[in-house]
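Continuing the batch. This is chain 6 of the set; chains 1 through 5 are on the previous pages. Same settings as before, nothing changed between runs. Recording input and output for traceability.
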Amino acid sequence: MRPKCSKSIGYEVVTVYNGEKAIEAVDSDPDIALILMDIDLGKGIDGTKAAEKILERHDIPVVFLSSHTEPEIVERTEGITSYGYIVKNSGETVILASMRMAFRLYDAHIKYKTQKERYEQLFTNISSGVSVYQATENGDDFIFVDFNKTAEKS
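Output for chain 6:
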């Protein structure tokens, strides 16, 4: 199905009707920025499996949209993504608010990931020896938590 655009909410929506097609859509369209994934997708793989396969290849926020409220189903999605779970028929306001929250969480994740990578590169490649240590409980001694290669050579 060709993408549909909803001007009233400002998002272009790509709709597919099974897990395999969802994977294909994300693989073929680098502009997809967020996935609203149903759990029940008819024949083939379900939404949780499709989301897992997508996330193996793409760093993209996934929000589950489902009529399931059983704890075991909701818990299954928690191990896949941390961007949200919306119960169907919650209404457009809830869906849009959840999408905005998912975008904010994803942006925070990317910022943290970038800062962490920058810190790790700096820590690893700096020409000075750098050690990170932690005081013991009694405060009389310390243990090394981490050190870079230059510190290791010293």
